[in-house]
Amino acid sequence: MSRSRIIQPGQSYTFSKYFELPFSPEDILAELGCVYQRERLKLPTTESTPRYIKELHRVIERNLQRVKLLSEDARKQAIIAPILLEVCEITETQLNIEYPISVSDQLKGSLDYYINKSESLLVIEAKQADLSRGFTQLAVELIALDQWINSEKPMLYGAVTTGEDWRFAIYKRQEKEIIEDIKLYRVPEELTELVKILVAIVSN
Fold first, then answer.
1. Which residues contact 24 (CB under 8 A, 6 or more apart)?
2. What is the pLDDT of residues 173-200, one digit of tens each?
3. Do residues 158 and 126 make contact, with C-beta atoms less than 8 angstroms apart?
4. pLDDT above 70 for 99
5. Pairing between strand 177-181 and 185-186?
6. Contact 143, 32 (CB under 8 A)
7. Which of 167, 162, 136 has the alpha carbon at shortest distance from 34?
8. pTM (predicted TM-score)
9. CA 83, 74, 123, 194 torsion: positive or negative?
10. What is the average pLDDT across 38-51?
11. Is the pLDDT of residue 83 over 70?
12. CA quadruple 147, 166, 191, 123: dihedral positive or negative?
């Protein structure tokens, strides 16, 4: 006996609507033709410490002292944007904010942060500070991005974040497989490690 579909044909779904669906990421991604796995990812990292990391630490710690992270905008402006702007400064690339894409009625919306240089990096802010449901939304956006961009890159990178917590994912395009990293990166404690990974992904 087959179960009823989660994603209803003929209905419109924005990326944020997937955040609201009360189903497991395995079931949602299966309907989009993808396999879901969780494991510890071996992410690229730079050997050298970025030049301005001490200043970024100072800025982030100041922002955490001065801003109460009670809203999505507060988390974006106080932590997420400063980190990603620093990564773009180091790698000499552009940061696309609220980048709109439309693949189909089931795959459309705006990507919170999108960097496209040597590799594609997608970062989304987890609404309601919910990393679990935020990851489902990130996975769906990676699937949409795979169909949107015109490149031969075998892998797409993504991260979902509350600002203070960051979790990575990779999308293996050929295999149609989303892998969620089991490791969580904490800011400000692991800011240096996080930035080194972000820089390595963008400039890989």
1. none
2. 999 999 999 999 999 999 999 999 999 9
3. no
4. yes
5. unpaired
6. yes
7. 136
8. 0.94
9. positive
10. 92
11. yes
12. positive
Distance CA 180, CA 182 (A): 6
Number of residues that make up the chain = 204
- Both structure tokens of 116: 């496209």
Q: Cα–Cα distance between 7 and 179 in angstroms, integer?
A: 21
66: which residues sit within 8 A by CB, 6+ positions away? Answer: none
C-beta of residue 166 within 8 angstroms of C-beta of residue 15: no
The DSSP code for 204 is -
The pair of three-digit structure tokens given for residue 88, joined into one six-digit string = 């773009």
Q: Are 181 and 139 in contact (CB under 8 A)?
A: no
For 178-200, give one letter per residue: b (16+ CB within 10 A) or e.
bbbbeeebebbebbebbbbbbbb
Condensed to tens digits (0 to 9), the pLDDT of residues 17-37 reads 999 999 999 999 999 999 999
Q: Any alpha helices (H) in the chain, and if so which ranges?
A: 15-20, 25-31, 53-66, 72-75, 81-91, 131-148, 191-202
Q: CB neighbours of 124 closer than 8 A, spacing ≥ 6? A: 111, 112, 113, 134, 137, 138, 141, 158, 159, 160, 161
